[in-house]
Each structure stands twice: as C-alpha cells, then as structure tokens.
C-alpha cells in the first residue's frame, strides 16, 4: 500500500482544514487507518484512527470534539476534518495503514505516507 497525504496549509486559529490520504492498492479496505502528527522538536503522536470498515473511530484527547476521521473505501481515501484549529495543532501530519483495530501506537502501522504540513497562526 502506498499512501499520499495532502490538504495541509496555513490557517488562522479557529479555522478548518480537511486532510486527505489517498491509497494505492486493492487491499486498502482491509486496513485500519491512522493519522499521526509531529511538531518541531517533538515526538510523533497519535491523532486519530478509523477501523477498516469505518465503523469505529478513535481520537487523542487533545483533538476530541474538534477533529473527525472518516474513510471512503470506494475511493481508497481516508480523511481528517480539522475544526477549531489551535496553534498547538501545528505539525506535519502523517497517515498510516495497518494498526490492527485502530491502534494509537505508531509501531503497529505498516505503511506511512510522506506527511503534509499544517500551520495554525494565532
């Protein structure tokens, strides 16, 4: 599975962005998908995950209620809708495939996209 994340950019605090992650390969629908982020000087952290069928979603406490993860298996794409963005959301965002049942642990994901940068100005 090859993953390509896009949709990042510069946005003011309180604004919204939608990230997308397009996957190649016919096995996309068999993988849980996760979003992670890494801010400058910090470790990569879990943001959100969705199970293979989209029936269950999981979020980091820091984004719960503001971000929504979803997927369209017919389009081989997973999305991360980000609302009420804060400066502390500034990071490079990565999508990943694997993750068992929507794990929050990065080592449980087998495939990673290249990342898309999100900058939230105050």
Mean pLDDT: 95
Order of helices and strands: EEEEEEEEEEE
Structural class comes to mainly beta
Uncertain segments are none
Binned strand content? over 45%
Q: How would you describe this structure to a colleague?
A:
- This protein has 122 residues and is an all-beta fold.
- 0% of the residues lie in helices and 50% in strands.
- It is built from no helices and 11 strands.
- The strands form 2 sheets. Strands 2, 4, 5, 6, 9, 10 and 11 form a 7-stranded mixed β-sheet that branches.
In short:
The protein contains no helices and eleven strands. With 122 residues, the chain is mostly beta strands. The strands form two sheets. Strands 2, 4, 5, 6, 9, 10 and 11 form a seven-stranded mixed sheet that branches. It has a four-stranded antiparallel sheet with strand order 1-3-8-7, with no helix packed on it.
What distinguishing features does this structure have?
mainly beta; single chain; 122 residues; 7-stranded mixed beta sheet; 4-stranded antiparallel beta sheet
């Amino acid at each position: 599975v090859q993953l390509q994340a896009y949709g990042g950019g510069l946005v003011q605090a309180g604004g919204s962005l939608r990230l997308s992650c397009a996957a190649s390969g016919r096995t996309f629908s068999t993988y849980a998908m996760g979003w992670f982020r890494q801010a400058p000087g910090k470790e990569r952290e879990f943001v959100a995950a969705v199970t293979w069928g989209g029936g269950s979603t999981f979020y980091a406490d820091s984004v719960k209620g503001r971000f929504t993860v979803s997927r369209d298996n017919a389009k081989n794409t997973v999305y991360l809708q980000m609302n009420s963005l804060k400066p502390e959301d500034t990071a490079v965002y990565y999508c990943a495939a694997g993750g068992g049942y929507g794990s929050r642990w990065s080592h449980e994901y087998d495939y990673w996209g290249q990342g898309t940068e999100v900058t939230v100005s105050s």
